[in-house]
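Today's session is about reading a structure prediction critically. Students often jump straight to the picture, but the first step is always the sequence itself: look for stretches that repeat, for charged clusters, for runs of hydrophobic residues. Only then move on to the predicted structure, which in these notes is written as discrete structure tokens rather than atom positions. Here is the chain we will use throughout the hour.
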Amino acid sequence: MPNALHDMRNLLVTPPEMQAVDKDAAGSGIDSFSLMRSAGMAVSAAALRLFPSAARFVVFCGPGNNGGDGYVAAAALTASGANVALYALGDTGKLKGDAARAHAAYGREAISIELYEPQSQDVIIDALFGAGLARELPDQAQEIVGRVDQAGLPVVAVDLPSGIDGRTGEIRGASFTAVHTVTFMAAKPGHVLMPGRGRCGTLEVFDIGIPARLVAARAGGLGINVPAVWRQCAAGLDPATHKFKRGHLAVFSGGPTSTGAARLSAAAGLRAGAGLVTLASPTEAIPVNAAHLTAVMLKEIGNAADLAEWLKDSRLNAFVLGPGFGIGEKARDFALMLCERALVLDADGLTSFKERRSELFDRIAASGGQVVMTPHEGEFQRLFPEIAADGKLSKIEKAQAAAKLSHAVILSKGPDTVIAAPSGRAVVNVNAPPWLATAGSGDVLAGIIGAHLAQGMPAFEAAAAAAWRHGEAGRRTGRSATAEMLVENIAPLPEESAS
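Below is the predicted structure for this chain, in token form.
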């Protein structure tokens, strides 16, 4: 796995992996209570930094080590002179290990959590349950969540807002909505997958002193999608290079009333750096497309025989099939012919294989091409129904399973877009603003991926870089974004110094 994913700033570690890291740290001689002290002190520092004038800090402590972090934070806040009230979930006499030690060190009474009554100036520190929660939040805790929500009080979460599953990002019955979350050593999938991501507020990853090598040794192939993930593969994508060295991208158009989506993809491909872009159009759509194209070239491709003849030109090295193309046999025939090249299969191209997916997957496996599939949630359900229906899997795990089954790179679209390779490597894109979900946005994304493939980027890196550039285009465009505006705001790839 590339070292970029072992940059602690970009790493995603699942709760089981983090538990293994904690055990490894203890086994290496690191005092686990010192780690808890570092975590609790980081939480208290964040609370004081964000709310220096708080009338009262209310600390909710759970029955495990997350609660132990809360006891340390409460002690530090008290020592700083802050007004602190601590409420515990469960019998504090049953605390064990470091949590019991932290409770003893706090040295003050812990009030039963059911007695908490919100005050208007309270700042909540949520140390009930961390990222390891994989069951419904206890009823007592859910009631407290309701009280805090109703009062509109700010919450600082320890590790992850209680009620969010750290592996999937799902809400387990109810959860706090934090203004700030302090987690330790590395982010967890629940921090970046929806709906959990929307309840974390700003995320602070604090190094509590576990050596990075121990974290890296347990981490799988998961990360946050940042330029460090794909920059090395993009190093040669210089827009100043001659057009014939930057690849030739072909985008397939639908019929005369369905041409706009393909033109958006083609325009995005040209803007994103492909040296040449050709729109392959059926005969009946030639006049419509010709009236709208300038720098993008036009080629009449009416059937499979036309395509076979065109493919004799080896300079055609990347293709986008699906946007506005139409569902059916023609889409299937074209896609199967293109699998030996670099191909982005999107929209109608995906849906056309709903009943014949094995044919597509077998062809991809045998072809050795570079294929990227870009399903939104509905298309994913149609093409991978058994994976989509498995409620135990996170969005990351679903994308990984689909990539393994299809032998293609899967870009599973949404506010938490996941890019997964058949090898299991995966990244989650986090820079896309909500307004990016506009008509035609996916067509623009497909064109950017196509441009990267045309320039020789491997499929995984091509898709990851495209998702990131697509998100940045949305940010540059602003809330009034339309697909055409996104094309105009596709920025150059970031400089070497970007992270």
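Discussion point for the tutorial: The domain at 3-221 is CATH 3.40.50.10260 (Rossmann fold).
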